[in-house]
Amino acid sequence: MNTDVYKALEDVFPKIVKLMPEKFDSHEFILELAHKYQKLYIQALFEQKDKKKPFETVHKAIGKRLKKRVDLVKHVRDRSSKNIFGFANEVAFWHKVK
Predict the structure, then answer these.
(1) Which among 1, 4, 50, 55 is least surrounded, fewest beta carbons within 10 Å?
(2) DSSP code at position 36
């Protein structure tokens, strides 16, 4: 997994968190990130093109990196949320750090 594209995505996390409401889940964060930084998101997906589930691989990597950003967010709990394909699964629920 090329970390350069994930580093570039992580570099924009502060900008995305600022756009988010006080409480949000990983799916909401990823959708905003994908919308605002489409080229980076596509690069990350392209790097995982040979995986069985490239979207899941990329989304998990983003979630893991976001969890480490305690300067930006606090992981509160997990909750059910629909992914970009409309299927519900458990994802992290976040509160912004003030």
Answers:
(1) 50
(2) H
Q: For the chain, give every domain's residue range.
A: 3-96
Global pTM value: 0.93
Q: How far apart are CA 81 and CA 94, in angstroms?
A: 13
Residue 77, number of CB atoms within 10 A of its CB: 9
User: How many angstroms separate the Cα of 45 from the Cα of each of 1, 3, 37, 39, 51?
Assistant: 11, 13, 13, 10, 10
In order of 16, 24, 31, 54, 68, the CA distances from 73 in angstroms are 11, 10, 17, 25, 9
Residue 22, pLDDT > 80, answer yes
Q: Are 97 and 69 in contact (CB under 8 A)?
A: no
Q: How far apart are the first and last CA of the chain?
A: 32
